[in-house]
Design a protein that fits this description.
Length: 142
């Protein structure tokens, strides 16, 4: 993964994972990450958007993801759950990000942080979600 936006996603997944496990306030995690990371290497506003946007829209994200899973969302590996939520957030709330980019970035994150075959699971779930929430874009692309 290269590029400042990809790096922002990578940091956001790490921060979301921390939030999921600890229940720590998102603003505290935000400040901690920004203090610990070289902010010149990633797109800070996008990192903040993802980190704050996922928890703020958690109910809607989980509502869209849950029917697409083969198990309860709580049973999904926490790393993959954070990646799925981030990918779903981009698909649902960032139409300027092409659906293929959102899915590919999530798959790459799963390859970096997830279980051995986690990227396949992430790809399958987000592909189903994209067909649901980005139908017109998918039909237009062909």
């Amino acid at each position: 993964m290269t590029g400042k936006r990809s790096k922002a996603r990578q940091h956001a997944v790490q921060a979301l994972y921390q939030w999921q496990l600890t229940g720590q306030d998102v603003s505290d995690i935000d400040h901690q990450f920004l203090a610990e990371q070289d902010v010149k290497t990633f797109e800070v506003p996008y990192f903040k958007e993802l980190l704050h946007g996922v928890p703020a829209n958690l109910h809607a994200l989980d509502e869209q993801l849950s029917p697409l899973l083969d198990r309860a969302l709580a049973s999904v590996d926490p790393v993959e759950r954070a990646i799925l939520r981030l990918g779903a957030y981009e698909l649902m709330y960032h139409p300027e990000v092409p659906f293929r980019v959102a899915i590919d970035e999530a798959v790459e994150l799963a390859k970096i942080f997830g279980a051995e075959q986690g990227h396949r699971y992430v790809n399958g779930v987000l592909d189903k979600l994209a067909k649901k929430v980005r139908r017109s874009e998918i039909e237009h692309v062909g």
